[in-house]
Amino acid sequence: MKKTILNLKNKTVGNIDLDSKIFGIRELPDLIHQYIRYQNAKSRQGTHKTKSRSEVSGRSKKPFSQKGTGNARQGSNKPPNFRGGAVSMGPVNRDYSFNLNKKEKKLALKSALSIKLNEDKMIIIDTFEINSHKTKELHIDLKQFTFDSALFIHSENGVNDNFKLASSNIPKISILNQKGINVKDLITYDKIFIEEKSISEITKRLS
To answer: What architecture is the 2-44+96-206 domain classified under in CATH?
Structure first.
């Protein structure tokens, strides 16, 4: 399938052939949902922790006599029912991540890319190289495109410092190396701007 190549001024500069096995597959919402769950679970720190009875500071001596006080018998001042005592069945350090096999990851990425292409929210840009680091100039160019938020995917050496500096002050815009493409970002951002060089790299990696 053919897709038009534009420059940052929204002018047509050529065409590119996209692999239909990567950019033209059907939508797989269940797999996309599973991939996003995988990403969210992997990003959780899991450092929540409360102290158990063995970790709470305090004496293990009986706080008062077993009999004769009229109170319920107690073995120490560390139980949950005591002020400053332990937490019953509280959270502990854990790893929330789970595995997702490579075929599922690739298929979810292909589906997300195909969705963006079908919705006409994927734009192929010839290059992200700009001559000025001024935000105002880049902002004027990007006004030629209509989007609420945008993700710029570049090749290994496809973005210079000028573009990074100029785009850093524009809200709802992010830059990502093609090696880091993921379903969550592809779905979250309104439009995806992909550098022409990145297409061959993405195609090779997902084939």
So the answer is: 3-Layer(aba) Sandwich (3.40)
